[in-house]
Every structure is written in structure tokens, then in C-alpha cells.
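Worked Example 4.2. Consider the chain below.
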Amino acid sequence: MIDLEKLKEHVFDVVGAIYEVHSELGPGLNEFCYQEGLKLQLEEQSIPFKKELTIHPSYHGKMMDAIYRIDFLCKESIIIECKSVDDLNGDMRAQLFNYMRLLKCPSGIIVNFSGKKALVERYFYDEEKRDILTVDGRIVHKYRN
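Applying the procedure from the previous section yields the following C-alpha cells:
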């Protein structure tokens, strides 16, 4: 079983960096501008990260040619997907959830920078149970074995 409180503490400074970017840049810019701002903010706060991490999924144990690019992987265990859209939708969340599952990454953040306030959604992956959980422990997605 995962320790939600520990994971929430682990992402705290990353979430703070996201809010700092939105505070500085404001709403209405494109996703790439916010990504660049977040890159600079993470560097400024000395938070380790990889930007546009490329992954290949596997099928029956064989690596596929398909390529996915993750916006950010912070602290080796927090995936961040940046958006600048009217509304986040289920497909965008599913993208984050699949990245978390493929990388066996316990923490994921999807952020929508387009509004007056940044909308930050934090999710956690219980690899043992193959569940995606909200910050309050509610299951939002189950992967079948």
C-alpha cells in the first residue's frame, strides 16, 4: 500500500514551482511557454528533472517503435503534464495515468495553465494494486492485471 501523505509531501515543492510559473506568466499563453517557464523555475529551485523524456511502451515484453514524450519527470518519480486548454478532459488524464503506469511512477501531476488560476491535479499510482488515486485516496482508475 502506498503512503499518500509521504507522496503529497514529495510533490509539494514541485506544485509550488508550478504555481510560481503561473503567477509570473499569467493566463493565456501556449503550453510551450509554460513548459519553458517551468523548466527555468525547476532549475532555480534546484529540483532535479528531465524535460521531454522519451519512452517506448512494450508489448509482450518487446519494445515498440511507438514514442511518447513526457513533459517533465521530476525527482525520478513525479510526472508532470502541462496543458493550456479551456478544460482538462478524460483523455488528457488517461494520458497521464498511462505514463504513470508505463514508468511505474508513483506521482503524477496534470496542470492547466490557461485560467486565472493554475488548475493542478495530483494523482498517485499504487503499482501493487494497479490503481490511480486522488490526493484523498479515492480510486479514479483501475488497471486490470
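Residues 4-142 form a domain with the Trna Endonuclease; Chain: A, domain 1 fold (CATH 3.40.1350). The chain has one domain: 4-142. Compare this with Example 4.1 before moving on.
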